[in-house]
Amino acid sequence: MKNIAILTSGGDAPGMNTAIRAVAKYAMSKGITVYGIKRGYAGMLNDEIFELTPKDLGGIIDRGGTFLLTARLPEFKNPEVRAEAVKNLKKREIEGLVVIGGDGSFHGADLLYKEHGIKVIGIPGTIDNDIAGTDYTIGFDTTLNIILDAISKIRDTATSHERTYLIEVMGRNAGDLALYSCLAGGGDGLLIPEKEFSIDDLAMQINKRREQGKLHDVILVAEGVGSAFEIAEKLKGKVKSEMRVTVLGHIQRGGTPSGLDRIIATKMGAHSVELLEEGKSGLMIGIESNKLVTYPISHAWESKKEIDIKDYELALTLGH
Question: For residues 243 and 228, what is the distance between their CA atoms, to the nearest angstrom?
């Protein structure tokens, strides 16, 4: 393996830069030339490919986002577009490709491998933690801690004014961010897309806590459930509490990656190079029970990551 490339694709996640650094530095230590591809698959198509140097990697380990930039390219679903993009890899004799992103990004990598023989390794980088085959995705822990900081601040105001706050967090169709921020942040309620909920039951819980003397409520709402504003509107007239909504939005994506995200990103980045050197391809890297594992890259979308029902029930029990 003489030449490899790295790209980041889909939504940015804290720790992507750490992963890029690990892939590149580990590969360089083995005499491999490393290329960076700007703007994901769009940059591959538009030939935004450049050779990385140690200077490019300095000072990025603790930077959020991705210095390679990221973009979406729906046209990459077209085989002709993929074939055109691959020409830009082959003219540089790039044999291996490390793709850092979510399942959509992995789809593109899988097709490059199957159609054009490009050796690909996927590293799961998404704050949603929604990829099967790994306990944690890069960016999840950092985002979780951002949410926990927000909960602590909002709780101060919620208590002072005796209010119920609905905090809407990211996660697309996965409830992990809402679940674990509720569990770690002492949330009083939890709404996630994996579990049905009743507005009447939620209202009853809020009213019961008021009768017991509790002054406030902080309820976590995963964006996949629906708008927190719409849920608050449905609760009006059913609860004996003033309602407020906070949508954390894109503040959850940025910031310095946590120690855990940096460690995971570094281990996965180095391991991706090892796999390519061994001639392996079409794989994604995960971490399970604190051990690195690999699965066929298609595992990311062919299997569904399930919510931990015990953790969900514990969060509800402690929130009542």
Answer: 11
Name the amino acid, one letter, at 30: K
Contact between 220 and 167 (Cβ < 8 Å): yes
What is the spatial order of strands in the sheet that 3-8 belongs to?
A: 49-51, 33-37, 3-8, 96-101, 119-124, 283-288, 291-296
Burial 297-307 (b: 16+ CB within 10 A, else e): bbbbeeeebee
Q: Is 214 annotated as a binding residue?
A: yes
- The answer to whether the annotation marks 105 as part of a ligand binding site is yes
Domain spanning 141-253: which CATH class is it, in words?
Answer: alpha beta
Interaxial angle between packed helices 259-277 and 16-29, expressed in degrees from 0 to 180 and rounded to the nearest 10: 40
Burial letters 120-142, b for 16+ CB under 10 A, else e: bbbbbbbbbbbbbbbbbbbbbbb
Same fold, 3-139+257-302 and 141-253: yes
pLDDT in tens, 186-225: 999 999 999 999 999 999 999 998 899 888 999 999 999 9
pLDDT of residue 282: 97
pTM of the entire structure?
0.96
Is the pLDDT at 185 greater than 90? The verdict is: yes
287 annotated to bind ligand: no
Alpha-carbon distance 143 to 126, whole Å? 10
Q: 24: exposed, middle or buried (C-beta count within 10 Å: 0-12, 13-18, 19+)?
A: buried
What is the dotted CATH code of the domain comprising 3-139+257-302?
A: 3.40.50.450
Is 122 within any annotated ligand binding site? Answer: no
CB 136, CB 260: distance < 8 Å: yes
Domain ranges of the chain: 3-139+257-302, 141-253
Report pLDDT digits (tens) over 97-140: 999 999 999 999 999 999 999 999 999 999 999 999 999 999 99
Tell which residue, 271, 272, 275, 277, has the closest CA to residue 31: 277
- Annotated catalytic residues are 128
CB proximity list for 268: less than 8 A, separation 6 or greater: 19, 22, 123, 124, 138, 285, 287, 292
